[in-house]
Design a protein that fits this description.
The chain has 351 residues and is of the alpha/beta class. The protein has a domain of 156 residues: HUPs (Rossmann fold). It has ten helices and nine strands. It has a six-stranded mixed β-sheet with strand order 6-5-3-7-9-8, with helices on both faces. The radius of gyration is 26 Å and the shape is globular. It catalyses: FMN + ATP + H(+) = FAD + diphosphate.
């Protein structure tokens, strides 16, 4: 019996030691994973990224979305934040395309939720309609078939944020993380502040930004040619009060003398005050010229601070743009140009 016991122990003890090593290895691995930064690259990620595809787990994306929700909606408690993140992110792996920022994508997704659940009486209806229009645009033209015109002005800021939010929602439903596509038409006489703001937004919002210095029509033509002539949609910041913009609808085909594309106007029914209410409510960054009395931006040569915002008794001090009480004076700081024979809606300054 004693010999049998010794034989049993001779087998059991090494086995227990082996299992102990295995258990310790598993615990150590789990500990390392817990301490690993949320988006650190694993060997699997490195291999996928080398092939142009980086994979992010639902847990990782939910973590990033939770952080973004806490910033966007600080009044929500942790349980509400985690529950919302669970609903926004399906339990699948997500393909990250061309090194897109997971954190910027998560912020866009959190912004979409904040807009979708907005309780501000004056904005809720406008937001619902704008989100619907952009959702339809991405559904009809695809994730890579929609470009948003981003010239750095206040209206462009709003449509950029709306577009990146709806784009993120559409991407997460497709199991992908990508950059929203933007287009910027450079002016020869551009404000340096606008250039700086566009460059900063490109980085912080992780946008795919195409720049054209050839003018609006030539730039659009080049963009369409680069996309092999496919039918594209361009999101514009046109509002009904803008001069020379006619009777456009939310979806408006281009003029027959231009390359074929679809105009998408998600803020068509917004007014000047709605633009600023949105910017303030969602704490959206904007170019600092608006804090110096500018209310509508064009070229430096034809734009000055709005005289309606000049502080009484001062030589050159102005109130910020959102303090303009008479919205019909939005363009009072613009130097009038001689009328052109033909003015297309696309050429209107929506800033």
């Amino acid at each position: 019996a004693s010999r049998l016991a010794r034989a049993f122990l001779a087998v059991l003890v090494p086995s227990m030691a082996c299992w102990r090593v295995v258990v310790l290895a598993v615990v150590a691995s789990a500990y390392k994973m817990a301490r690993r930064p949320v988006h650190a690259m694993t060997a699997r990620d490195a291999a996928a990224d080398a092939a142009g595809t980086l994979l992010v787990s639902a847990r990782e994306l939910r973590g990033a979305v939770s952080q973004a929700l806490r910033k966007r909606l600080p009044e929500r408690n942790d349980a509400e934040v985690l529950s919302t993140a669970e609903k926004l992110v399906a339990d699948v792996e997500y393909q990250v395309c061309q090194g897109a920022s997971v954190d910027a994508f998560a912020d866009a997704l959190a912004l979409h939720h904040a807009m979708e659940t907005c309780e501000d009486a004056s904005l809720a209806g406008l937001l619902t309609e704008s989100l619907r229009i952009l959702t339809d645009a991405y559904r009809l033209f695809g994730l890579d078939g929609v470009f948003t015109s981003f010239n750095g002005g206040k209206d462009a800021v709003v449509i950029m944020q709306l577009s990146r939010a709806v784009f993120a929602k559409a991407c997460v439903q497709a199991g992908r993380i990508e950059r929203a596509r933007m287009i910027f038409f450079e002016l020869q006489d551009e404000f340096e502040e606008v250039e700086d703001f566009v460059r900063d937004s490109h980085k912080t919002c992780d946008l795919e930004l195409r720049r054209y210095s050839t003018g609006f029509v030539a730039g659009l033509t080049s963009c369409i040619e680069e996309e092999e002539g496919r039918l594209l949609a361009f999101v514009l910041g046109t509002r009904r009060g803008d001069p020379n913009c006619g009777k456009q609808g939310t979806f408006e085909p281009s003029s027959d003398w231009m390359p074929p594309f679809m105009r998408v106007n998600p803020v068509l029914d917004w007014e000047y005050g709605d633009i600023w209410r949105f910017i303030r409510l969602f704490q959206i960054p904007y170019v600092n010229l608006y804090d110096k009395g500018y209310t509508s931006l064009g070229k430096k040569s034809d734009t000055q601070p709005n005289p309606a915002l000049k502080k009484p008794g001062t030589a050159d001090e102005y109130l910020p743009a959102d303090m303009l009480s008479d919205w019909s004076l939005e363009r009072a700081g613009r130097i009038k140009k001689a009328p052109k024979p033909i003015i297309e809606p696309e050429q209107c300054d929506a800033t």
